[in-house]
Predict the structure.
Amino acid sequence: MAKKKAEGYLSGREARRIAKENRRITNAFEKQRKRKNVPESEYLTHMADPNNAVEFDNLHTYFYTDAGVVKSVDGVSFEVPIGKTVGVVGESGCGKSVTSLSLMQLLQRPQGQVVEGEIRLNMGDKAYDVTKMPNEQMQKIRGNYVSMIFQEPMTSLNPVFRIGEQVDEVIALHHGEGKTKEDIKNRTIELLEMVGIANSQGVYQMYPHELSGGMRQRVCIAMALACSPKVIIADEPTTALDVTIQAQVLDLLRNLKDKINSSIMFITHDLGVIAEMADYVVVMYAGRVVEKGTVHEIFSNPAHPYTIGLMASKPVVGKQVDKLYSIPGKVPNPIDMPNYCYFKDRCEMCVAGCEGEYPCQVQLSPTHFVSCYRYYDHKNQGGEG
């Protein structure tokens, strides 16, 4: 009798077959992406609502690995309204950062590809579908219209260049036409002062290792805001900072957003930060949006068992408990996702029907949506499928 292979084991033949198939698929995507002189009509689109800065519509982002296809973002839809902050929350690996990198077209390619869906970007007089934009056009969008504050400031800044040179480069690249070196330097110093760096002239001459974590994070924010973008993606900008510096960075972001009238897509694990910063909340789990609504709806009336679990697992001031709640079980394997609700195996609120296919979206209020079988009676009363 043949010896049973261990789970997850791939034979050499199977690995070669997967690698060959991956190359075939990714080469087709790359060929499309690298075309020159693409007519604007190919990526022109219309916003579903002109009051939105960005609209993610049924976004699928996959990574073609040697072990199989990882469906990192699997049908995500939500909006970022103009002038508002949308908090995207969920555990590590749920697809938050990959969603934002899809908007910036900064996925690790050729493995990472947007395979389906639209990302509509409001340019004011017109709208672009970012997923169809070629590389050369995308370079004009990054920094000017959409900018990103990356997760780890030490690795985001180049250790061998001075701070001033790195911020200068952003300004020179996007708004350098007709400006002297002195003009660009003055603008950089102005930006450093704007993000609360007192010794801006001194910091201009320093290297990243000479600054503290909070100072480096402020420099990253200055670089992201250099061209007054319409959309700022803040990917866990306060993760490595202590609480006092964290509060300062959040205040800074809030004030600067109002000053340049931009929208923020705020990615974090921290529900306290979401409550303080966001107008709307999107809860992601295993590559899908399980719940979305206004910050008041999500915090006062969480509907999905996963959101309820997240709320229960955070400490509350003035409430004494022996042990904090933790959600049981673990996230399913991203290469082999189940064909029922992804949260079912960890859920403590299962109802009849949970073993069926993945639940569709149910509308609880004009702004509150949830994907859960527990609310299917709402659906029959005029909710959305």
Remarks:
- The first helix runs from residue 12 to 33.
